[in-house]
Amino acid sequence: MFDDEPRFRPPAEADSLLLGIATGCPWNRCAFCAMYRDQAYRVKTSDEIRRTIAKAARQAPDTARIFLADGNVMALPFSLLKEILTELNQAFPRLARVNLYANGRSILAKSAAELGELRQLKLHTLYMGLESGSELVLQGCNKGETAAGMIKAVRLAQDCGLRVSVMILIGLAGRARSLEHAVATAEALNRMQPRLLSALRCIPIPGTPWDQAIGDGRIAMLTETEAVRELREIVARLDLTQTVFRANHSSNILPLEGRLPKDIPRLLAELDALLDSGELDAASPGRLPQYL
What we know:
Layout lengths: L16 E4 L1 E2 L18 E2 L2 H14 L5 E5 L8 H14 L5 E5 L2 H5 L3 H9 L2 E9 L3 H6 L6 H13 L3 E8 L7 H15 L3 E6 L7 H7 L8 H14 L5 E5 L8 E5 L3 H14 L15
């Protein structure tokens, strides 16, 4: 890391060089998220970015993988993203790929030609939170996006040669809309056909609107049993042709991973075995990690 700001990254980027291009998140209003609550959104100037890249190149000249932080760097204008990627390609001779956070709107703000040009400059994987395929659930958590828009964005990006890693949140809809959430999420994923898919359990973070909704009874949090059942409902409905699936985050009750569609029978069998084991808490969410 080559600045003093705290940074967030996907687990898959643990071995990547993190470069701070912006601070915070330009939306920063999702009801379940506290990652950037205390940070004002700011994009570094071109001079600051060049200095950051130059410092990193001096200290780690053989870098092959870079992750651009922080939230939704894809929201930067095309011209600035092109400038950054061009600078990175010049500074790091062994550069293979550059990855970053994105959302549907920030992808759709670029034309197919622009996305193709960014791909030629080694932009590779875009991490995007779908969270839910239900429009009602997305509105309820103030996602600021529509499922239809995110489906269109993923299809566009992947048609342009980029890879999209999509995240969904188990339990986000609460008990009342659990089945609706599962069915709509699987449908959205089938239309997207993401190359990477991650499932995390939604964890209430103190001070967030989602946590407050649980506290005052507007949302009933899923028990351990219900959370595993919801994940099973999603997996059973997936019709993906070439996707790496992971549900091995610390929030997950059962760590899972596989290649879809080949491993769907095995994943369902593992989930069924857990549901039949009697080991799950059917009365409460069970022990929760401190953070999503």
